[in-house]
């Protein structure tokens, strides 16, 4: 049985142990302040280890750099004492801590990217919804425009129909009238009676037996002869008079008189 030089207890081969490269003694890892993980690291890295007593006796100079190792005056092999190993392990712990920080940073950035990705997805969804709404709005606007055009067309048609109806009524109201031009106006105050007598005389000269219903001068008095509007009993009387107007050409008194039907403003434009 081999005992540990520090605790004097037996060091079993089946247990985790360290062998000093110089004195070849077996040590319990906990007796030299090392953990099982430290021993596993030395074993897997195939590193040599020297106990503190041998290190002192060999007067090995300590190196502060991780890559430098204690060197004995009797051997060219590289050695690691407990101080160097602790420094290395401390450096490894620092590296692991930095690595952990990097992992945390990467995870945080990844979470932020996930959040941004979700926001971007939401924005795309909203844009898609806006496109659909714009499409619906365009359709509604087109529908409104069509309705406005339809209403305007109906209004125009209605206005046209109203105009046509008004024109029809106006023509009907004028259908029994004839207009006499170039009939001299009387000088005395009995204007209406004189005009009636003159119209009756003209009708007799035309050879028609028609009694006017109304005889009326059109417009305000002026230096010119105003036309006379004559309302007749029927439309057929209008045709009789218009068909006989050629007889006035041979009448010395009324050969300048012109007789026409009572036309609407629209009829006079054509």
Automatic annotation (TrEMBL):
Domain RING-type positions: 4-55
Pfam families xrefs: PHD
Signal peptide: none
Keyword terms, alphabetized: Coiled coil, Metal-binding, Zinc, Zinc-finger
The UniProt record lists the keyword Repressor: no
Coiled coil: 127-154
Record bears the keyword Zinc-finger: yes
Gene Ontology molecular-function annotations: zinc ion binding
Annotated PHD-type domain residues: 1-57
Superkingdom: Eukaryota
Annotated InterPro entries: Zinc_finger_PHD-type_CS, Znf_FYVE_PHD, Znf_PHD, Znf_PHD-finger, Znf_RING, Znf_RING/FYVE/PHD
Protein name: PHD-type domain-containing protein
Species assigned in the record: Sipha flava
């Amino acid at each position: 049985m081999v005992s540990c030089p520090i605790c004097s207890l037996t060091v079993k081969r089946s247990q985790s142990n360290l062998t000093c490269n110089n004195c070849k003694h077996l040590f319990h890892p906990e007796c030299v302040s090392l953990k099982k993980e430290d021993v596993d690291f030395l074993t897997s890295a195939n590193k040599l280890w020297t106990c503190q007593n041998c290190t002192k006796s060999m007067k090995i100079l300590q190196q502060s750099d991780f890559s430098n190792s204690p060197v004995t005056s009797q051997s060219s092999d590289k050695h690691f004492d407990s101080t160097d190993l602790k420094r290395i392990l401390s450096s490894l712990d620092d590296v692991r801590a930095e690595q952990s920080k990097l992992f945390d940073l990467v995870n945080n950035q990844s979470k932020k990217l996930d959040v941004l990705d979700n926001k971007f997805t939401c924005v795309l969804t909203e844009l898609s919804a806006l496109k659909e709404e714009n499409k619906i709005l365009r359709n509604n606007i087109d529908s409104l425009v069509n309705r406005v055009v339809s209403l305007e067309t109906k209004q125009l048609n209605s206005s046209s129909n109203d105009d046509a109806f008004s024109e029809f009524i106006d023509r009907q109201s004028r259908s029994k009238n004839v207009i006499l031009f170039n009939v001299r106006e009387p000088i005395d105050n009995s204007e209406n009676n004189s005009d009636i007598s003159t119209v009756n005389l003209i009708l007799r000269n035309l050879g028609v037996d028609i009694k006017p219903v109304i005889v009326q001068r059109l417009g305000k008095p002026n230096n010119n002869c105003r036309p006379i509007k004559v309302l007749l009993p029927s439309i057929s009387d209008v045709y009789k008079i218009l068909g006989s107007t050629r007889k006035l050409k041979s009448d010395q008194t009324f050969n300048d008189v012109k007789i026409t039907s009572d036309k609407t403003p629209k009829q006079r434009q054509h």
